[in-house]
Specification:
329 residues; Rossmann fold; 4-stranded parallel beta sheet
């Protein structure tokens, strides 16, 4: 793919002006205690406090805002384990259209309940025996619905990039490093376009669990690598089968690298975020801080940006995770 990054950056700025009335301007959190523990300045973009509890509302609003009146009249469809589902359902309300959500029946109960509260039409499927994209394509074709992709579409990526745009306006100084939670890679792509436009020398890393590190392996090899499909599935929001083609192409061109970590660092990150900022992150939303804890020696003395990408977690899951935290920082 050929990329015009200046054009992309301008599109992200335009998108922000369109979606701003519908989103929260989430805080960029900093703590001297955390800085001292890790040996660097850390700025945490608290998208767990976003409308619907994650950054996904940004991409959903961006995509739906670009639809024609005819498309809005027919409705939209999304497939998601929860955060994109909520984002699309809420964005559909904002633009007066109907949302159909294809959702795995084993999604976290809090994500199912929160999605249901937004009154979309929900179709559950079996993650082990059915393919959500195939189900979604059939339903969309039958009913004339527009599919709102979770990451592999520029109109979604433009929305996710507003996370970085907002953060730059909030930051007291330039970022040297950015660690971004990554499933399909759309948040990384959108943020990287903006960060590289403002800070050409910034180092940017995707963050994943070690047992589901398709992003890390893909950037190391220079080609898309499938996930290994092993591990506990703790980070349910990151369990994409492989990086999206469009975000991977963008991130590869911008020199993005990958980081991953074992689950014990996720438990520590969730506990640390609660202790210092009084926030409860879902495991997927804590993965950037988890990787920063594991790889802290790489970033000593630097200004580090990271994402708290979501906070939709069942209480028993959260309590179980923090009970395993050791915090041997």
């Amino acid at each position: 793919m050929q990329h015009n990054f200046q054009s992309y950056a301008a599109e992200i700025e335009k998108t922000y002006s369109v979606i701003e009335p519908h989103i929260q301007k989430t805080p960029l959190l900093n703590s001297k205690e955390l800085d001292t523990k890790l040996g660097m300045q850390v700025f945490c973009k608290a998208e767990n406090q976003q409308v619907t509890g994650s950054f996904k509302i940004r991409g959903a609003l961006s995509a739906i805002s670009r639809l024609t009146d005819e498309q809005l009249k027919k409705g939209v469809l999304a497939y998601s384990s929860g955060n994109h589902a909520q984002g699309v359902a809420k964005a559909a309300q904002c633009y007066g259209t109907e949302a159909t959500i294809v959702m795995p029946k084993d999604a976290p109960s809090i994500k199912i309940k929160k999605t249901q509260s937004l009154n979309p039409k929900i179709i559950f499927y079996d993650r082990e025996s059915e393919v959500r994209e195939e189900i979604g394509a059939r339903i969309a074709e039958k009913n004339g619905l527009t599919i709102i992709k979770p990451y592999d579409a520029m109109e979604t990526i433009y929305g996710q990039g507003t996370t970085a745009l907002e953060s730059i306006k909030q930051a007291p100084s330039e970022f040297d490093v950015a660690l971004i939670c990554a499933g399909g890679g759309g948040l990384t792509a959108g943020c990287s376009i903006i960060f590289k436009n403002h800070y050409p020398n910034i180092q940017i890393f995707t963050s994943e669990p070690l047992e589901w590190n398709d992003q890390e392996r893909s950037y190391a090899s220079g080609s898309i690598q499938a996930a290994t499909f092993i591990g506990s599935g703790l980070c349910d929001g990151l369990l994409t089968p492989e990086p999206g083609e469009i975000p991977f192409s963008i991130n590869l061109a911008l020199g993005i690298q990958g980081l991953s970590c074992e689950e014990k660092y996720i438990f520590d990150a969730m506990q640390l975020a609660k202790d210092i900022f009084a926030v409860e992150l879902e495991p997927s939303g804590a993965i950037a801080l988890a990787n920063l804890i594991k790889h802290k020696d790489k970033f000593q003395g630097q200004n580090v940006f990271l994402t708290f990408s979501g906070g939709n977690v069942d209480p028993e899951v959260f309590n179980g995770c923090v009970a395993k935290a050791k915090l041997g920082l």
